[in-house]
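Submission checklist for the structure archive. All mandatory fields must be present; incomplete records are returned to the submitter.

[x] Identifier: MGF factor
[x] Organism: Toxostoma redivivum
[x] Residue count: 197
[x] Sequence attached
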Amino acid sequence: PAGGLALLLSVLLWRALHGAPLTELSGDQDFQLFLQRNLEFTRKIRGDVAALQRVVCDTLQLCNEDELLLVRQDLDIAQAPLEQCHKRTFQAETCFSQIRAGLRIYHSSLATIQALLPGHTGLVETLQLDMANLSSNIQQQMEDLGLATVMYPTENQDPLPTFSSNFHHQVGGFFILANFQRFLETAYRALRHLTNL
């Protein structure tokens, strides 16, 4: 009976994702496919962010984070938390939720980058589209696994940071990209961690 198997699988998945070892998931082909596809997606997004970082370095001469740390103290730049995605405290459900929340924050703050680099609107828009797709892939996978998903309103609710000067705007853009790159590296490691279970 397929229904009984589905029930057994959903119980195993529920246990796996609510504190039991995640080994039950490792054999799930759809889940592995989801991970592989979204590892690739995350890698592509990281490449696009790196391309924007190079543009900021080349056109605005902002390349070295250490030189800008003093200015950063004056800026209100959000850094999306991903502590649930570190191995020590890893929980797939909360990690996925944090990745989605972070993507939403960075999606809206990329408008700052678009204003800074009007000649690179296409790249920023591609990046935003990829981020929206990654977020919906994760949401779909969470629904498929029967995990609680947090629905975020689609309209932009996060006010963009305001900058007191053009230079602060440029440095703010630099740190948005630097934070986003670190966020993506952590998200990538979390997805890869799941493939190795």
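[x] Structure attached
Curator remark: The chain has seven helices and no strands. The first helix runs from residue 2 to 17.
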